[in-house]
Design brief:
Protein name: TetR family transcriptional regulator
Number of helices: 7
Organism: Amycolatopsis halotolerans
Order of helices and strands: HHHHHHH
Length: 238
């Protein structure tokens, strides 16, 4: 049995076009933002790789006496790594402040992307039935690019959930390793393996986010095509 779906009213179609204009501009911003954020995550991941390489390959030199001030852990630090990443192990009971900040950034990002995934997924779930009103003979040409953009945004919502899980796993891995100087010294190879695993999670999260951002950018011509076709259909409220 054929079910005839009524098309949108002129006022509704005009609303669809206004939404499309706003979301096109919004996705132009966020497609770039996601790529930039992914690149920053890869830099943090590379810092962890450098730490793991130091702990895995370097013999333990004689330690310096910290009695006269903050002394770096010569067996855990590489000067080039400190200069390029800022991560500095000091003799004492604390892990580097830079690692604490790194873990905090990813903990916050995991929560943020989980919220974003839920919010966006909920809105996209409502959009799919709502936009069926475009699937009429008069508007089907405009419907195709609009549904292509909807598909990519739905994919982004799903990708953000995966990103959140990967970031959360990276944080969990870092929390499971004692990253104080003595904690690393107890088993440097184990500590290296743990931070390398966290690095893998970060690399995977960055890749997933970069792909989501790149796909969002592909919707730009679809938004523009939908706007132009909808306006040319003669169905808009004037």
């Amino acid at each position: 049995m054929t079910v005839e779906v009524p098309g949108p009213s002129p006022a509704e179609l005009a609303g669809y076009v206004r939404v499309a204009r706003d979301h096109r501009e919004h996705e132009r911003y966020h497609s770039v933002l996601k790529l930039e954020e992914a690149a920053a995550w890869r830099r943090d991941s590379n810092a962890l790789k450098l730490l793991a390489a130091r702990w895995s390959d370097s013999p333990a030199p004689e330690r310096l006496d910290p009695a006269h001030g903050a002394v770096g852990c010569v067996d855990l630090n590489d000067p080039a790594v400190v200069a390029t990443t800022g991560i500095l192990f000091l003799e004492g009971d604390s892990e580097p402040a830079e690692l604490i900040a790194l873990r905090g950034r990813f903990e916050q990002a995991a929560a943020r992307y989980q919220r974003l995934s839920g919010w966006l997924g909920e809105h996209m779930a409502a959009e799919w039935p709502r936009l069926r009103t475009l699937l009429t003979p008069a508007l089907v040409e405009a419907a195709r690019p609009r549904f292509r953009a909807l598909t990519r945004t739905t994919e982004a919502a799903n990708a953000y959930s995966l990103v959140a899980r990967l970031l959360d796993s990276a944080v969990h891995t870092l929390n499971a390793q004692d990253l104080t100087p003595e904690g690393v010294r107890r088993a440097p190879a184990v500590a290296a393996s743990m931070v390398l695993t966290a690095s893998w999670f970060l690399d995977s999260a960055a890749s997933s986010l970069a792909e989501a951002g790149a796909h969002l950018g592909l919707s730009d011509p679809d938004w523009s095509s939908f706007i132009a076709l909808a306006e040319a259909s003669g169905s808009l409220e004037t």
